[in-house]
Amino acid sequence: MVWRVGALVHSLVRGLFKPSEAELVHRERNEVESLFQQAGVADQAGRSRLMGAIGNAVADRLGIPPTHDQVLLIQALVAEVFSYEGLFVLPEVDWAAERTIAELWDIREELTRQRGFVADFEANCELLELAFTSILGPLYEACPALLKQSEHRDGITVPTSLLRNVDDIGTVTQLMLGVAFSEELSERGLLARLSQRLERNLIVASGGNPDDPRGFNRTPKLPEQFDAKSPVQLVSTYLGGTPLLPLFDQTLDFTIPTKARFEHHHIVAGSGHGKTQTLQYLIANDLEAVAKGERTVVVLDSQGDLIRTIASLKEFAPGEPLDERVVIIDPSDVEWPVSLNLFDVGMERLSGYAPLERERLTNSILELYDFVLGTLLDAQMTQKQNVIFRYVTRLMLHIPDATIHTLRQLMEPGSEKKFAPHIRKLSGTARHFFDTEFTSREFDQTKKQVLRRLWGILENQTFERMFSHPRSKLDLFTEMNAGKVILINTAKDLLKEQGTEIFGRFFIAMIAQAAQERATLPEHKRTPTIVYVDEAQDYFDRNIGLILSQARKYNVGMVLAHQYLGQLEPKLQEAFSANTAIKFAGGVSAKDARALAPMMYCGPELIEAQPKGSFAAHVRGQTKGAVPLSFPFGHMEALPKMKKAERNALRQRMRDLYANHCSALGDTEAQACDEPEADGSTTSPEASSKSNSSKNNEGSTPPKEQPGHIDTDAGDKW
To answer: Which of 158, 430, 677, 680 has the fewest CB atoms within 10 Å distance of its CB?
Structure first.
């Protein structure tokens, strides 16, 4: 009995003086807080210092300089993971509040977890450094561009998504997963919440039930094996809900190298997708180089809107950086037709070259006439027509002040007598052709066909006015080497489809000729030239391969833009594909996307997924596959514009430099400047050609205004 009483007393005393659960939790918190103070992380300032130190150590392990932008991203990742995991955070406890035993046990459990973090503080910090390094390393290895210092690069820079620049997103994601599941991190509980979430994502990706992880017994589907529709879907599937996912939400400054631009650029973009806005962005960047005297820009535009937007820029006004560096060719200024001549190819300058260069350039000119005149005749030239044109164009080069009317006269009966003095200047086979074959019956019918087609071409009065001048006032060889902005409006609304095609081909041929003539210049004197051709399908045939290869050799790059592949015949599509190093595609049909995808080393879904203003872009030698590039809308429209007086002054200067008043072409053409008579009668081709064949060398001062005078002063939209 005594023993039983003693036991009861002992139990009673022990119960009276045993600390409560709350007291035990309070003591443990004080102990852990003491450890936190020893580690220097007891307050937010100390914790921030620790996160900064780990971030800097990770950057150092990865070889990233302290001033690099990625250091801030690494520190942000460390801070986000610390917050996500609750690392080195003492639980806040209101000791005055009553708590259940279960709540107190939860606090004790968290304190035990935090004690583990600081109990082996140095080792845990080093382990975290290694974990972050192992997570980030694969990303930087797969996309070295992230670690390139932000600096001026030779080219045009546009933003692009990081995800599209990672070589193998599946492998990178899988390596990140492996770090979180490492045994050492798991034993220390350092990234417990992260590993749990990643495990859940992995089960979902593998078709399991994330709410029953113990019941998941199938082989997991790792990121490398996941059939994702896009990189975004892949990283969202495996990294969603974790601090790792924002790592891929970065943009890179993607630079289109200037060197690649001289290997030519092909843009395919559907109507309204942003093709013109993209061209304006590229051109605006080029204008900065023109202002420094480092580049020439040529723009061919059949709609006129692009030309008007560029020509109205304040940069071209007197006293501005591009003052006197602009050339505007505008057929719609009908009262002042630009002075052009198909056959004024600078023979005087060619005569000063060495015999080899002179012969080479002459042959190149004759080759380009096939390109231009093939369009003038509105059909593929027959073999007989081709033979005639090869010899006739060679003769034209020896006829002073020859015009398109001279070509017409050569096709007329008796021309061999009329032009006999010039035929005698020829030698060899060319001379023999005119002596024996040109007048043969075999070629009579061919000459009549050519003549008939020429009459049809000359019926277009705007075209006739421009090409009836004995001398061209525009020398593209000189202008391209002078660092100019040359704007050529091919005016589809005025010249219509055939006229636009003829006009554009003429200038492309002249650009190609000027490029080939650069062979006579030292390489450092060949001013880099970028030629923008909108609606390129209007101007090119299968000769494009030859033109592009020749242009590339002499520092001339071409940007060829159009709306869909069906605008190009198959051979022309092949030429565009083989001869362009840069390719943009967006806003195209599924059929075009499938055709373009192999050329751009990407899936068709990437091309189809591009929103308005964005393109799948591939640069040969720089990107393994296409990457999305977005171009801002309204970039050029936001630049300062000229005032009306400045626009008028610029237009008058263009008239003085490159045009003649229509009255300078003769009385008949002066009448053509007036409005048509009420009965709708028009001048006959015969009468028109007679007036144009006369060489009138009057000045460019216009006559007094007559009834029906057309007001061609610059309007607000010019």
So the answer is: 680
